[in-house]
Amino acid sequence: MGRVRLVFEPAEENVPGGAVDVIAEGWLDGASAIYGVHCDPKIDVGTIGCHAGSITAASDLIEITLTGPGGHTARPQLTIDLTSVAAKVALELPLLVRDLAADDGIASVVFGSLHTGDAPNVIPARALLRGTFRSPSFDVWESAPELVERALASILESTGAGWSIHHRRGVPPVVNDSEATSLMATVAAEVVGSSNVVDTPQSMGGDSFAWYLQKVPGSYARLGVHDPASTHPRLDLHASTFDIDERALAVGVRLLALTALAALDQSANGA
Predict the structure, then answer these.
(1) How crowded is the C-beta side of 12, counted as CA atoms within 13 Å?
(2) What is the mean pLDDT of each run of 10 residues along the chain (271 residues)?
(3) Architecture category of domain 58-171 in CATH
(4) Could you give the CA distance from residue 129 to residue 165 in angstroms, rounded to a whole number?
(5) Looking at residue 3, what is its pLDDT?
(6) Measured between alpha carbons, how far is 267 from 165 in angstroms, rounded to an integer?
(7) Is the dihedral of CA 224, 195, 136, 53 positive or negative?
(8) Based on the number of CB atoms within 10 Å of its own CB, is 92 exposed (0-12), middle (13-18) or buried (19 or more)?
(9) Shortest CA distance to 66 belongs to which of 138, 189, 160, 137?
(10) C-beta separation of 223 from 39 below 8 A
(11) How far is CA 118 from CA 114, 123, 129, 212, 238, in A?
(12) What is the DSSP string of the chain?
């Protein structure tokens, strides 16, 4: 088996985004609750999605380095065909991690980058795979480094390839507080009408708002931003041509302002 090196970076020190810094600088000190919205092109403008419990997944970054002696493509039997090994990892690791986590919850590994060399007639001595580990479960997220390591060791055991894992913690799941969500949904019904308040399905995306909800209770809603009259395809978040129906901005402002006032009123009355 190849050399094992697991690098583990705590999220509090390495998470991208500003949530951890906001908390560290004390901006949530004394807060009783926090509320937010995220635009959602899957629902139309004038619609608000609310859901108590987990609405996003934990998300970590993983980087796997494979090593071998390299060689010539004319004689792969004399070396370790690292490109084939990398392909094996890319195909088998997601399935094995999923199976290892099955008793505790859902786990997803997807690779977005795989690089194994440059010359067509040279078997490379190094390969690099980069991707994400995601899970809506806290328990599965906490065991993520171990799950990935176990799966990789099993896959590479007979290949002779050296390997190391750089596992970088990202964000935990966003878990909405039930009471805070109930308050926000009540306000949302006042803003857009009860028939336009819908349930928010579980997303495998990650969001740094999760760190705020580790500090204080609160709720994160989905704000519909799709123009129902549009004849263009409904785009996903982060698409290169993504845009919003700007009428959604007024809906979001009203929702957040009235939710804050309702929460303050509730706190003042000791509810």
Answers:
(1) 5
(2) 49 63 91 95 95 94 95 96 97 97 94 96 97 94 94 94 91 95 98 96 92 96 93 82 91 97 86 56
(3) 2-Layer Sandwich (3.30)
(4) 10
(5) 46
(6) 47
(7) positive
(8) middle
(9) 160
(10) yes
(11) 12, 9, 15, 44, 30
(12) -----EEEE-HHHH-SSSHHHHHHTTTTTT-S-EEEEEEEEEEETT-EEE-SEE-S-EEEEEEEEEE---EETT-GGGS--HHHHHHHHHHHHHHHHHHHHTTT---EEEEEEEE--S-TTEE-SEEEEEEEEEES-HHHHHTHHHHHHHHHHHHHTTT--EEEEEEEEEE---EE-HHHHHHHHHHHHHHH-GGGEEEPPP-S---THHHHHHHS-EEEEEEEEE-TT--SPPPPTT-TT----THHHHHHHHHHHHHHHHHHHHHHTT-
Domains 31-56+174-268 and 58-171 belong to one CATH topology: no
Distance separating alpha carbons of residues 268 and 117, to the nearest angstrom? 64
pTM of the model: 0.84
**223-241 burial, b for 16+ CB within 10 Å, e for fewer?**
bbbbbeeeeeeebeeeeee
CA-based end-to-end distance of the chain: 60
- The torsion of the CA quartet 88, 90, 92, 96, rounded to 10 degrees, works out to 140
d(CA 139, CA 104): 7
Domain parsing of the chain, residue ranges: 31-56+174-268, 58-171
CATH superfamily for 31-56+174-268 is: Zn peptidases (3.40.630.10)
Query: Token digits for 143?
Result: 């065991």
